[in-house]
Design goal:
Layout (H helix, E strand, L loop, with lengths): L3 H24 L4 H14 L12 E6 L2 E6 L2 H23 L4 E6 L6 E3 L24 H12 L8 E5 L5 H15 L4 E6 H13 L3 H9 L3 E5 L8 H16 L3 E6 L11 H7 L3 E5 L4 H14 L6 H10 L4 H18 L5 H7 L13 H12 L3 H4 L6 H17 L4 H7 L5 H17 L1 H14 L1
Parallel strand pairs: 2-3, 4-6, 5-8, 5-9, 6-7, 7-8
Antiparallel strand pairs: 1-2
Helix pairs in contact: 2-3, 4-5, 10-11, 10-12, 12-13, 14-16, 14-19, 16-18, 17-18, 18-19
């Protein structure tokens, strides 16, 4: 017969296990109302970080002073770990009134990945997905081609060559392809870098006699993405190396994706054999968004940030910012920032102030589109003429005037300005500025023309 003394140790052990199970269950539950308070603080104090997918973040437990938060995609994990760690930790400490930290985790980490020029995992933007890309007449073909490549890399369009001016969505499409390829092929190895980085790595490999490692790195990938491939022009030895790298990947049915500011045939000092190969797949141009597309972009960007904008504000921004998606996003950021500073409602007055309409003429920001409109009206030429390769003086001089004003009144670099006018390089823009400046000094009639157009801009 068992005595009371023999039962007590067993009962104590049972109770200890029960207590441990209870503690584990408690640790696995995080109060939803506490989490919502944390989200509200982050969204209020860091509006530029706010994303609509924050609602999908799931706090799993608070254990040992660490709140473990689950995210859905690797891109979201990268974004949260690189930009949200401190804001969320500060919010948690405010709400809980104790020293805690927030840690982000993802269950769907790929065994492959996207790697940069240092062979380190590249941080992709969770905003740059196909779901968040606004499709319009300006980008329908490159979007469809990009989606087809992401679904069937190496077989749909190879290579895929996307070209267009700055801020029109090329990077968005490139990153969307990478993210979707990884979703479908968990172990895919993607190398994503700029053309300038490819050139520098080639030069370093030659100097150190390390070409075998260089070639292995670039020729043993599933997807190679090179941004701004037009910078390959004039680099004869690098072009030859890229030619062989291209052939190796192409013959192995590995996907090649390239972006540039001009189509292959219009990139100067590019070997004909490379031009030919770049045209083997699909060459797709991204154009400036029309008004309706700009409205849709603003709506999408605002929703992504959890920002409510009235229809009249959306239409106003779309009508004032015409050049590219990047400028639209900048306008939304300024409106959001001013609303936060003034703690006021986002209305037309605030939008006008954010976009500079209440300032003096010197404070107002002149856009390239305003310059193009003023110049094409004065000289009676078409925008398409300015962006063409035509060199007749009736077209070339108005184009030079546009470049002159763009350099004088905007903060764009010479390369970016050239991108707006048919993908011309920085030396062309510099030549245009010098030509117009010299003509103004030598010809009073030209000086009068330039001053008249500048008056229309102010």
């Amino acid at each position: 017969m068992l005595t009371t003394h023999t039962l007590q140790p067993r009962e104590a052990a049972r109770r200890a296990h029960a207590a441990a199970d209870s503690a584990a269950a408690a640790a696995a539950v995080f109060d939803p109302s506490t989490w919502q308070k944390m989200l509200q603080i982050v969204r209020t104090q860091h509006p530029s970080l706010n994303r609509s997918w924050f609602d999908q973040l799931a706090p799993r437990q608070l254990s040992n002073g660490v709140i473990q938060v689950h995210v859905i995609t690797p891109a979201q994990l990268n974004f949260c770990q690189s930009q949200c760690q401190q804001p969320f930790t500060q919010a948690a400490q405010v709400v809980l009134a104790r020293l805690v930290a927030v840690s982000f985790h993802c269950d769907n980490l790929p065994t492959g990945g996207v790697f940069n020029d240092q062979d380190q995992p590249m941080i992709l933007s969770p905003d740059y997905t196909f779901e968040n890309f606004v499709v319009g007449p300006c980008n329908r073909l490159p979007h469809a081609a990009s989606f087809a490549v992401a679904e069937n890399p190496g077989k749909a369009y190879n290579p895929l060559f996307i070209h267009g001016g700055v801020g029109l969505g090329k990077t968005h499409l490139l990153q969307a392809i990478c993210q979707q390829v990884l979703e479908r092929q968990n172990d895919a190895r993607i190398l994503y870098l700029s053309c300038d980085s490819f050139i520098n790595q080639f030069i370093t490999a030659v100097q150190h006699g390390d070409m075998s490692q260089f070639r292995y790195r670039f020729r043993h990938v599933d997807v190679l993405v090179i941004d701004d491939i037009h910078f390959l022009r004039g680099h004869e030895r690098t072009q030859e190396e890229f030619f062989h790298t291209f052939n190796t990947l192409y013959q192995g049915n590995k996907q090649i994706i390239l972006s540039a500011d001009a189509p292959p045939s219009e990139i100067p000092e590019l070997e004909e054999r490379l031009v030919s190969r770049f045209n083997w797949g699909l060459v797709a141009r991204v154009e400036k968004p029309c008004y309706e597309t700009r409205v849709a972009i603003i709506q999408k960007k605002a929703k992504l940030r959890g920002l409510e904008l009235a229809d009249d504000v959306i239409c106003y921004v779309a009508s004032k910012v015409e050049n590219n998606t990047r400028e639209l996003e900048g306008a939304i950021t300024r409106i959001q920032g001013m609303a936060m500073l003034q703690a006021g409602k986002i209305d037309m007055d605030l939008a006008r102030a954010a976009l500079g309409e209440t300032g003096t003429p010197e404070q107002r920001r002149i856009t390239i589109q305003q310059i193009i409109d003023a110049v094409t009206t004065y000289y009676n030429v078409r925008t398409s003429d300015l962006q063409s390769k035509r060199r007749h003086k009736s077209i070339a001089f108005p184009r030079q005037v546009c470049m002159y004003f763009a350099r004088k009144h905007t903060r764009y670099s010479l390369e970016e300005i050239g991108g707006y006018f048919g993908g011309r390089d920085h030396t062309t823009v510099l030549h245009a500025v010098r030509t117009v400046t010299g003509d103004m000094k030598e010809d009073p009639q030209i000086a009068e023309q330039i001053n008249h157009i500048e008056g229309q801009l102010s």
